[in-house]
Write a structure and sequence with these properties.
By secondary structure, the protein is an alpha+beta fold. The chain has 13 helices and 12 strands. Monomer.
Length: about 375
């Protein structure tokens, strides 16, 4: 939105939280451009190759040509012939992520990482006594730029849903503040595609029902939403009214370790889904290794274009032994579900069944893999 408010305009009504959502800009690609100055200003894709694979992340220069995450590399190369493909360097990204987390914790202990490149912060009572969530967001963004050479966007509001939407409003390198009293009107004007969890196919389905904005969504009752959107209905009902009572939870107890990806474009082919699965296996296994986790159950989750969910799991009578077995089980789970009746908009993979061993601690970068 427009310029940030002064402190006396800040979110300060009794009982309201002060939430910041920080989201790094084109994180993987930006790290590659930072570490290799010859790539700066050029279209860069992380993951895949010109002949095969899937784009994991794209620089803003590449996005201008229509290059997107989860896109087949051959399509990306066709859209942008000058596209430069770089293999992912997860350890480099994790190192930067740890630097960023350390900055967050100088302002509040209430930090909830969603992925390596984004997190919620509750600064209702900040460590430094600054008092203004907007000012804290400005300071954090400046610190990130100074210490890592990368830019971050931030959203500031009184709940998590609005803060996350706000962080995407003025990307890249932007700040958006949604104050109390503004949330419902802000959401009403949004295209439904901006709601987290609503992809292109979901937006198409909504358009067919006459739902194109938050205001259109708010006009329907919960029974209508449940009929057409199943398990997402309650979320959509609350989101259309800018309601989100979730607290920032820095120490969520883990019963599983995993991650999921929502695709920019739905994927309908077996080869395309298998390629995406390989990237998820790699990311999840790195978190498993870092947490020294041991589990017995591997679960694959797919959300189809009609919002229905398919899950398939396998439980062993012992702990999964190493990356090879974990990856093999994941591939078999996907093969068991193929072919699917509809395209897939989200894929997730988890390891669980820690009950006979000490549950692993939270891992930096765990949770939803929305960084792609």
């Amino acid at each position: 939105m427009e310029s940030a408010p002064h402190q006396d305009e800040e979110i300060s009504a009794p009982g309201l939280r002060k939430i910041i959502h920080v989201d790094m800009d084109a994180f993987f690609a930006s790290v590659e451009q930072r570490d290799d100055p010859s790539l700066r200003g050029l279209p860069v894709a992380v993951g895949g190759s010109r002949e095969r694979g899937v784009v994991a992340a794209a620089s803003y220069e590449a996005r201008k040509f229509g290059v997107r995450s989860a896109q087949p590399s051959v399509v990306a190369a066709r859209l942008c012939p000058a596209l430069i493909f770089k293999p992912p360097r997860f350890e480099a990204y994790r190192k930067v992520s740890q630097q960023i987390r350390a900055i967050f914790r100088e302002y509040t202990p209430l930090v909830e990482p969603l992925a390596m490149d984004e997190a919620y912060l509750d600064v209702t009572q900040d460590i430094k006594g600054i008092g203004s969530a907007t000012r804290i967001a400005e300071l954090i963004r400046a610190r990130i730029k100074a210490e890592t050479g990368l830019t971050a966007s931030a959203g500031v509001s009184y709940n998590k849903f609005l803060a996350k939407i706000a962080s995407d409003q003025n990307k890249p390198d932007g700040l958006c503040v949604i104050r109390p009293g503004e949330g419902a009107d802000f959401v009403a004007a949004l295209p439904v595609r901006r709601f987290h969890g609503v992809g292109p196919r979901g937006a198409e389905k909504m358009a067919a029902l006459g739902i194109e904005t938050g205001a259109d969504l708010r006009a329907h009752d919960i029974a209508f939403l449940r009929e057409h959107f199943g398990s997402l209905a309650d979320y959509l009902y609350r989101a259309a009214r800018a309601i989100d009572l979730r607290a920032v939870k820095p120490n969520r107890p883990r019963k599983s370790l995993g991650g999921e990806r929502t695709f920019d474009r739905d994927i309908s082919t077996g080869p395309g889904l298998r390629q995406v699965l390989e990237g998820i296996i790699e990311m999840v296994w790195q978190d498993i290794e870092k947490a020294k986790a041991q589990g017995r159950t591997v679960t694959l989750k797919l959300r189809l274009s009609d919002f229905s969910i398919r899950t398939h799991a396998r439980t062993l009578d012992r702990f999964v032994e190493g990356r090879g077995e974990f990856a093999g089980i994941a591939r078999e789970l996907l093969d068991d579900l193929l072919p699917l009746p509809l395209a897939v908009r989200l894929m997730g993979l988890t390891l669980s069944g820690f009950e006979a061993a000490e549950a692993p601690p939270p891992v930096e970068g765990g949770g939803q893999m929305v960084l792609f």
